[in-house]
Design brief:
The chain is mostly helical and about 200 residues long. The protein is built from 10 helices and no strands. It has one domain: Tetracycline Repressor, domain 2. Helices cover about 75% and strands about 0% of the residues.
């Protein structure tokens, strides 16, 4: 990909995350990025093209981060804790309307990216669950497939704002509570002891 185009995509993604998608026109995007609208049309056919490119870029970045954590974690519980911190930060920083905007105005792009992301993240979760069982940190009688599906279903609801509508708390709060519920539900006696030590040594957990 052209270096300049990649820089524009990364910057445009930050704009959408901060202001949402619907309210950012091509004129406003050009203003936010400090470029002419002509420059935008040099690289993108329209707003749909920019949104699609941003979603693809975001997916690549997210998967790279997740794979790095899962590939270099000390153990299965430590991996999940690191991932949860990343997810909660993302959910806290993101504009609350962005997923609604995407589902209403750019459904094809969202569906395409969500399908790919869900498939790859589910594989990472399955591997983590199996690793935890081998390490003795997770229950040896858990059903990895069911648990991975539950995790993905919750994330889908969070992204659609189904669980936050009508409440004052944000998606990061819901995810935090779910994660604590999840990790304690899958941990073995050994895993719970390890988790207790992690929490004791990290006030952010």
């Amino acid at each position: 990909m052209d270096k300049k185009k990649k820089e524009i995509i990364a910057a445009a993604l930050d704009v959408y995350l901060q202001y949402g998608v619907k309210s950012v026109t091509m004129d406003e995007m050009a203003r936010q990025l400090g470029v002419s609208k002509k420059t935008l049309y040099q690289y993108f056919t329209d707003k749909n093209d920019i949104v699609d490119s941003c979603l693809t870029y975001a997916l690549e970045c997210d998967l790279a981060d997740l794979k790095s954590v899962f590939n270099h974690g000390e153990n299965a519980i430590q991996e999940l804790m690191q991932v949860s911190k990343k997810v909660m930060k993302q959910l806290k920083d993101i504009h609350p309307s962005i997923f609604f905007d995407l589902s209403k105005y750019h459904p094809k792009s969202l569906t395409k990216i969500s399908s790919q992301k869900n498939s790859e993240i589910k594989d990472l979760l399955l591997n983590n669950l199996k690793k935890g069982v081998k390490e003795g940190l997770f229950r040896d009688n858990l059903n990895a497939e069911i648990l991975a599906n539950i995790h993905m279903a919750l994330m889908e609801h969070l992204m659609s704002n189904d669980l936050t509508e009508g409440h004052t708390y944000g998606p990061e709060v819901i995810y935090s509570e779910f994660f604590r519920y999840h990790i304690r539900g899958i941990a073995s006696t050994k895993g719970l002891a390890y988790l207790k030590e992690m929490i004791k040594n990290d006030e952010n957990l």
